[in-house]
């Protein structure tokens, strides 16, 4: 039987020690359902340290990535308040961080608001390589996130996104890359949370998924993500 607690501890130790570890499945193969149990155990450890769950992040929201990983549905990870980046991000506690542009949702009682955002990814595995169960167990590589001003609902099916690092454009894309329309990712998040018995409450934050590939996030850098009609969000690393 898979030792859920021990595997969650391995990933927590990787975070604490800022040290990548081999894929968990190399020594103890497990399935997707077990992977989510490991993820939940890891989040429970964070909660015992005082962190608070505030939303979810979606992964594998592009058809190409689904095909690559051999899946027919999105995956998800949990967001906590400790992951929220206001204006400055200290990279000393991350192993090999990457950043990607995002569309972010704020769930309301009768709808949602949207913002442009970014997600910082940091796989706890060596060489940023993993299987599907591994990445789910690792909370979908979640490490940090931020967002700009909230906007009332509008057509988000083809929002142009630009990500710059130190004034140089490093990625451009469209929100159409997120399941054809990021609102579909929002609906998937609501469905998955409900099916898991942890429905999303008003005030929950949802990262809809990557609109482009993630790029390495360097130290002492200024990152800006701009979304057409949604303004921009910035973060400085140190």
Descriptive account of the structure:
- By secondary structure, the protein is α+β, with helices and mostly antiparallel strands.
- It has helices spanning 4-17, 32-48, 63-69, 132-137, 182-195, and strands at 53-59, 75-80, 88-89, 98-107, 112-121, 142-147, 160-165, 168-174, 205-210, 215-216, 222-227, 231-237.
- The strands form 2 sheets. Strands 1, 2, 4, 5, 6, 9 and 10 form a 7-stranded mixed β-sheet that branches.
- The longest helix is centred in the first third of the chain and has 17 residues, at 32-48.
- The protein is globular and about 50 Å long.
Summarize the topology.
Layout: H1 4-17, H2 32-48, E1 53-59, H3 63-69, E2 75-80, E3 88-89, E4 98-107, E5 112-121, H4 132-137, E6 142-147, E7 160-165, E8 168-174, H5 182-195, E9 205-210, E10 215-216, E11 222-227, E12 231-237
Helix pairs in contact: 1-2
SSE string: HHEHEEEEHEEEHEEEE
Inertia-based shape = globular
Query: How many helix segments?
Result: 5
Radius of gyration equals: 17 Å
Fraction in helix: 10-25%
Class by helix and strand content? alpha+beta
Low-confidence residue ranges? none
The average pLDDT is 93
Tell me what portion of residues adopts beta-strand conformation: 25-35%
Q: Sheet with the most strands?
A: 7 strands, mixed
Let me know the number of strands. 12
How far apart are the termini?
Answer: 42 Å
Pfam family, one: FAA_hydrolase
Keywords: Hydrolase, Lyase
GO molecular function: hydrolase activity
InterPro entries: Fumarylacetoacetase-like_C (IPR011234), Fumarylacetoacetase_C_sf (IPR036663), Hydratase-Decarb/MhpD_sf (IPR050772)
């Amino acid at each position: 039987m898979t030792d859920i607690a021990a595997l969650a501890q391995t990933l927590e130790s990787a975070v604490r020690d800022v040290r990548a570890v081999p894929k968990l499945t190399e020594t103890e193969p497990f399935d997707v359902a077990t992977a989510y149990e490991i993820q939940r155990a890891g989040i429970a450890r964070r909660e015992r340290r005082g962190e608070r769950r505030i939303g979810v992040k979606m992964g594998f929201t592009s058809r190409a990535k689904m095909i690559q990983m051999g899946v027919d549905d999105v995956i998800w990870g949990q967001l906590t308040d400790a992951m929220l980046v206001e204006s400055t991000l200290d990279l000393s506690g991350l192993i090999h961080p990457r950043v990607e542009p995002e569309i972010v949702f704020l769930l309301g009682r009768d709808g949602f608001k949207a913002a442009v955002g970014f997600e910082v990814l940091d796989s706890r595995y060596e060489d940023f390589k993993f299987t599907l169960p591994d990445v789910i167990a690792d909370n979908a590589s979640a490490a940090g996130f931020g967002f700009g001003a909230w906007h009332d609902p509008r057509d988000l099916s083809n929002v142009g996104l630009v990500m710059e690092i130190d004034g140089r454009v490093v990625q451009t894309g469209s929100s159409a890359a997120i399941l054809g329309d990021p609102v579909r990712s929002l609906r998937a998040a609501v469905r998955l949370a409900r099916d898991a018995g942890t429905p999303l409450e008003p005030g929950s934050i949802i990262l809809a998924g990557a609109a482009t590939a993630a790029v390495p996030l360097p130290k002492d850098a200024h990152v800006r993500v701009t979304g057409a009609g949604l303004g921009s969000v910035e973060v400085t690393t140190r």
